[in-house]
Amino acid sequence: MSYVRFGLMILTSTVVMFILMYLNTYAWEHVFFSETRTYMAVLMGATMAIIMLAYMLGMYKNTSLNIAIFVGAVVVFALSLWLVRSQVTVSGPSYMRAMIPHHSIAVMTSERAQIRDQRVRKLADEIIEAQRREIAEMRYLIADVSGGNVADDVYQDPPAEPGDVEDALSNLLVSTLDLAPMSEAEASQVMEGGASCTFNRSPESEPILWAGEDGAAAKLNGVLLALDAAGDPQGEAAGFTTPGMTVSVRRLGDEGDWRADAELVFELERGLSVGYRGFYTCSG
């Protein structure tokens, strides 16, 4: 067997291992290129080169070349391990592209595991919702940060103060607030005329916004809110407001793809702002 054939075998195996690492993602829209996974695939390829050559030394008689392959594989292994552990080449967008497939694995295992204990099922459902929310937020941030909009600060809650349990129960941490998925039945409680458009963080989850010509509905901190519409909900951009809060939706147009076709930005007058990329669907 030639050394060229051996090299092609290691290279092919490395590429295949990189691809296989994505097979446990929940949905295709969660597949993003990951520098960390690339380094891991190279690390495994270097390991394979050492093991396979050690087992097949009888087939490869060039001692100098064998030593060079062993040394080179060890160097590649050490370098790729350092790159994985140090994350020195990973920027903000690269970090999020790596985290989305990772979150997707959590969604798949949490949804499909055979769970009987209701406490564990509740925990799994909370993990699913949190991961889907963060995936949608990371899709938004990847586009925003890659476009040059790098934030220097974010809203932070006031420092904690001494108190009792009643104080803790009545205290509202604004930084933890977020729009929650809501059913059509919930939306109908605060909307008149029904909804013609919805915004979903993922195709599998309930919408976080129901919108129509007469207004919109959202759920915040367990409260169903009615919002006034500013503009055509079925247009390229739409806004919805209620005292203290604004929700804006923009269709991505040429920016959109199979991962997301719209972005939603949720803002509170207190200073909190959170964006998501997902799916904005209108009927009629």
From TrEMBL:
**Keywords on record:** Membrane, Transmembrane, Transmembrane helix
Taxonomy-wise, where does this protein's organism fall, top ranks first?
Bacteria, Pseudomonadati, Pseudomonadota, Alphaproteobacteria, Hyphomicrobiales
The source organism is Neoaquamicrobium sediminum
InterPro entries for this protein: DUF305_CopM-like (IPR005183), Ferritin-like (IPR012347)
Segments forming domain DUF305:
94-156
The transmembrane residues are: 6-27, 39-58, 64-84
Please state what the protein is called.
DUF305 domain-containing protein
Q: Which domain of life is it from?
A: Bacteria
- Give yes or no: UniProt keyword Transmembrane helix: yes
Coiled-coil ranges (or none): none
Q: Which Pfam families match?
A: DUF305
